[in-house]
Design brief:
The protein is mainly β and 394 residues long. Helix content is 4%, strand content 46%.
C-alpha cells in the first residue's frame, strides 16, 4: 500500500471514529478504527481488540469460532472477518459495536485470509479441499471457488490488481489466478519440477508457505524441502531465478506497506536455525545469521528502516537485525513464545503475540524496548492484524 493509499485509509478511519465508531473497555469514548490491533487466539474463541496508541485492551469479542486462525479487515474498517478453521466458516464482527453480525460458510478447513489491494475481494485458502475461495466483503457472500491447488497456504495480490498468487505448501510450484476470469492462468515451478497435471508432492508442508511481493513487484517464495527461494517478476510475468538459502526455509519476508525500507528480505530457516538476509535489488544472498527452530515472523518499520525484527518461538525473544551490516545487534525479551506480530501503519509500534503467555507486547522499534504488556489475551494468541499495517500469519 503506498503512502497515498495509507493516507486515504487513515482519513476514512478518522471519519468513522468521529461518527462514534468503537467501544472502549473502560468508557464509551469513540476511537479511531485505524488505531486498533485485532488479536486472534487459537485455543479460545475470543477476538481481542487493542488500542494501539493507548496500549490497552478495548474489548474481548466472543466469536463462537473454534481454532480461529487469523483476521482481515474491510476496506472501510467497519467489519472484521475471523477465520474459524474447525467450524468451516468466517465470522463477521461489526467493528463499531464489536458484536458478531454474521457467519459465512467456507468449507474445506479455511485458514489464511488476505484482502485484494482495492479491498473488493478477500481470498481464503481451503486447505483440505485444495481450493481458494473468494469472498465479497460488500455482500459477505462467496463469489468464486477455484480448485486445482496442492494444499494452498496463502494468497498475495499483484500490484496491478489483475492476478493473485497462491503458495502451494504441498508442492514444488506456485499458482497464478487471473482475476478477470477467476481461473488458474499458470503454475510456476522450481527448476527441475513441473506443475499440474504432473504434480510432485512435497510432503509434511514441505512446499511454499507464502508468496510475498515486494514494492518493485518481485515475488519471493521460499521452498521448505529444497532450500530454494524463487524470485518472479509479477510486472513482466517472468521468473527471475532462484537462490539457495539454509535448510528448511519458511517464508521470504518481502511484503510490507513501507516505502522507505530498503529491499532487504529475511528468510528464517528451521533446519539450520538461521535467518538468511537477501539483497532484493541485487537478488543475492548477503549473509546467514543465528536464528531459531521456529522463527515464524519478521517485521519491518520506516522508523528504523535499516533494522528488522525477527520473532523467535523457542528462544522466546525478538532478535534485532541490522540489515545494512548483516548482524544481530540486540534481543528483546518478551517472556514467552513469540510467533507473529503486526506493525502499525505509521511504523511506530510492533504488536507481538506472545502465545505461550497469553499476552501481547507493544514494542517501540526505535528504542528496541517493550513499552506495554497486555495479559489475558485469550488462550494462545495466534495472529495480529492491524489496518494498513504489516500483517502475516504462520
Amino acid at each position: 500500500m503506498n503512502s497515498q493509499s495509507r493516507g486515504a485509509l487513515a482519513a476514512l478511519a478518522f471519519a468513522a471514529g468521529l461518527a462514534g465508531a468503537g467501544c472502549a473497555a473502560d468508557d464509551d469514548a469513540p476511537i479511531d478504527l485505524a488505531r486498533r490491533a485485532y488479536v486472534v487466539s487459537r485455543e479460545s474463541g475470543e477476538l481481542t481488540v487493542v488500542d494501539t496508541e493507548a496500549h490497552r485492551v478495548l474489548a474481548r469479542v466472543p466469536t463462537g469460532g473454534v481454532a480461529n486462525h487469523m483476521a482481515e479487515v474491510s476496506a472501510d474498517l467497519t467489519k472484521i472477518y475471523v477465520v474459524s478453521s474447525d467450524t468451516d466458516e468466517v465470522v463477521v464482527v461489526d467493528a463499531r459495536t464489536l458484536t458478531v453480525t454474521g457467519r459465512v460458510p467456507v468449507t474445506g478447513h479455511p485458514t489464511h485470509v488476505s484482502s485484494s489491494r482495492d479491498g473488493r475481494l478477500f481470498a481464503i485458502v481451503a486447505e483440505d479441499t485444495s481450493e481458494v475461495v473468494f469472498l465479497d466483503p460488500a455482500t459477505d457472500q462467496e463469489v468464486a471457488r477455484i480448485p486445482g491447488f496442492t494444499t494452498p497456504h496463502f494468497v498475495r495480490w499483484s500490484p496491478d490488481g489483475r492476478s493473485a498468487y497462491v503458495a502451494n505448501i504441498g508442492a514444488y510450484h506456485i499458482s497464478r489466478i487471473d482475476l478477470a476470469s477467476m481461473q488458474i492462468a499458470e503454475h510456476i515451478a522450481l527448476d527441475g519440477f513441473t506443475g499440474p497435471p504432473d504434480v510432485v508432492p512435497a510432503p509434511d508442508e514441505g512446499g511454499f508457505a507464502d508468496v510475498q511481493i515486494d514494492r518493485d513487484g518481485v515475488l519471493w517464495a521460499a521452498h521448505n524441502l529444497t532450500g530454494k527461494v524463487m524470485a518472479y517478476d509479477t510486472v513482466a510475468g517472468r521468473k527471475l531465478g532462484e537462490l539457495t538459502v539454509d535448510a528448511r526455509p519458511w517464508i521470504a519476508f518481502a511484503e510490507h506497506p513501507f516505502a522507505d525500507v530498503p529491499l532487504r528480505h529475511l528468510v528464517p530457516s528451521f533446519g539450520d536455525r538461521t535467518v538468511t538476509l537477501i539483497d532484493g535489488a541485487a537478488r543475492s544472498v548477503v549473509t546467514s545469521l543465528p536464528g531459531d527452530d521456529e522463527a515464524y515472523g519478521v517485521n519491518f518499520t520506516p522508523r528504523a528502516p535499516d533494522r528488522a525484527f525477527v520473532m523467535n518461538k523457542v528462544r522466546s525473544d525478538v532478535a534485532v537485525v541490522d540489515t545494512t551490516r548483516g548482524a544481530i545487534t540486540g534481543r528483546i525479551a518478551v517472556g514467552g513464545n513469540t510467533e507473529t506480530a503486526a506493525t502499525t501503519a505509521d511504523g511506530r509500534w510492533i504488536i507481538a503475540a506472545v502465545s505461550s503467555a497469553d499476552r501481547v507486547v507493544v514494542i517501540d522499534p526505535e528504542s528496541e524496548q517493550v513499552v506495554a504488556t497486555l495479559d489475558g489475551i485469550g488462550r494462545y494468541p495466534w495472529s495480529v492484524t492491524i489496518p494498513g499495517g504489516q500483517n502475516y500469519c504462520h
